[in-house]
Amino acid sequence: MKKLIDFDKIFNHHDKYKEKEINQERITYKEVHNLIQRYKKSNLFNVEKAGESIEMKEIYSLTIGNGSRKILVWSQMHGDEPTATAALFDLFNFFCDKDEYDFFRKEILRNLQILFIPMLNPDGAEKHNRENKISLDINRDSLKRVSPEAKVLWKAALTFNPEFAFNLHDQNCYYTAGRIKKTSAISMLAPPYNYNNSINPARTKSMQLIASINKNISRYIPGQIARYKDDHEPRSFGDAFIGNGISSLLIESGFIIGDNKKEVIRKLNFMALISAFNSIITADYEQMNENEYYSIPENETLLFDLLLRNLHTSANGKDFKIDLGINREKKYQKETGTFFYKGKIAAIGDLENYFGIEEHNLSSHTVKPGSVFNCEYKSLPSANEIINLLKNGYCSLKLDPFSITFLFVERPINVVPSYIKYEPLITVDEFANLSIFHHNEIKFIVVNGFFSPVENYPNSILNGVVIS
Ligand SMILES: [Zn+2]
Fold first, then answer.
1. DSSP per-residue codes, 230-253
2. Distance from the CA of 139 to the center of ligand 1, in angstroms?
3. What structural domains and CATH numbers belong to the chain?
4. Alpha helices in 41-181 (DSSP H)
5. SS3 of 251, please?
6. How far apart are CA 8 and CA 250, in angstroms?
7. Alpha-carbon distance 466 to 448, whole Å?
8. DSSP secondary-structure letter at 381?
9. Least CB-packed of 81, 101, 222, 324 within 10 Å?
10. What is the pLDDT of residues 219-248, one digit of tens each?
11. If you measure from the C-alpha of residue 155 to the centroid of ligand 1, how many angstroms do you get, rounded to a whole number?
C-alpha cells in the first residue's frame, strides 16, 4: 500500500480538525455561509459564488491546489443529508493546519486541484428536506437541469473538467453490509452509465478508487463497508458524469448502532476523502481491479429499528404466529429545532432473516392494537395519568382540537383530535401502537414505535404524535 501519511494516526487525530461550529445531525445554510467567510480570508482557498438557489441563497465553491489532476467534490444535494458537509469542513480545517502532515498537504496542493461545493441545496437544507424549494430532487435533474442547483453542478463539471467527481450523500439507516447483522456504515458506488451496467474506462477508474478506499478504511469498521446498489438512473449526476468520461464516485454516509449522531460516520467520511486523495497522488488505485470492487458486499435492506419476533395474533378465532418490523421515521421540527419520530409498522410475517437495531423475542406473547381512550381531555393529562392509561393498554387519547398546538408529544402517548375516528390496526404502514400480553396480562407496550415494559415506560422521549 502506497501511503504519504499514516492513516491510523490521522484517524486518531481527526478531532483536532473537527469543525466545532457545526453539528453533523443538521446543518443550516447560515452556518455554512458564516464558515465560508472564514475561508474567503485564507489564501489557500479560492472561494467563489458558484450560483444561487431558488430562494437566492448563495452556493459556494472552494478550490484548492495547483496540480494537474482535477477533482470535483460536492455535498448535500439532498438537503437532509448533511454528514459529508461536516466532514468537508473538517477537511478544510485540516488543509489550513500546520503539523506533521505538512508533506501530505504539500503533495495534495502540488498534484491536485480540488473544487469543493459544500451544500449544493441550501433551500432543502434549511427545511431539512431532501428536495429543493420546488420539491425537485436535484439528483434526478442532470438531464433537463430545470433547477438552478443542477445548473450550478453541471456548469462546474463543464468548466472545471474534473477527472474524478465525488457525490456525497446520507443513506437511510436500514441497510446492512451484505446479508449479515452489521449496518452499512459507508457505502460506495461506481455508478453505471447505462441499463446494461456496462463498464467504460471512467467507471473502471471509479471502481479501482473505491476498492482502494475500502482497503484503506475498512479496518476502522470491519465488515461495515458496502457497495450501493448499481441500478442505473439516467437522471442522476454520477451516472451522467461517468457516461461523459468523469470517474464519479457515490459515497453514502450510513449508520453505526450507537452512533446516533453520526459522529463516527463523519470521521469515516473525512478518512475516505483523505484516503482517496492519497490514492490518486500515489496511483495506489491503479493496483486495484474490478473484482476487488465487486467483492465489497452489496447493501441489503434487512434492518428495522425494532423487530418483535414470534408474537401471537388472532383473527376470526384462529391463532397465527408473526414477526413485526417497525421503523421510526425521523422528522425535523423547525419551530423547536428538534427531531421527532413517526413509528410505523414496516413489515409483518416471517422476518427470520431480518435484523432489528432493537430486537425482542416474544414467543408466548400475544399482540393487539393499542387502544384509544375515548373520553375527551381538555389538556394533556399528567405523567402519572398517562402511565395509568398505558397500563390499561391505551396508546392514544382524545384531546380537544383547540388545545392541540403541537405535532408531537414528549410524553409516551399519541393524541387524536376528538372529532377524528381513529381505529388502530396491526397493518403495514399503520402507526406502531401495540399492547403485548402474556396470559391475558399486559406486559409490554409500543407507543409510536417505541417499545417498553408497561411498568416503566420512560416519559421523556419524543415519542407521541398527533394522529389526524
Ligand atoms: Zn442523497
1. ----TTSHHHHHHHTT-EEEEEEE
2. 8
3. 7-301 (3.40.630.10), 303-465 (2.30.40.10)
4. 83-96, 102-111, 122-127, 148-160
5. strand
6. 24
7. 10
8. P
9. 222
10. 999 999 999 999 999 999 999 999 999 999
11. 20
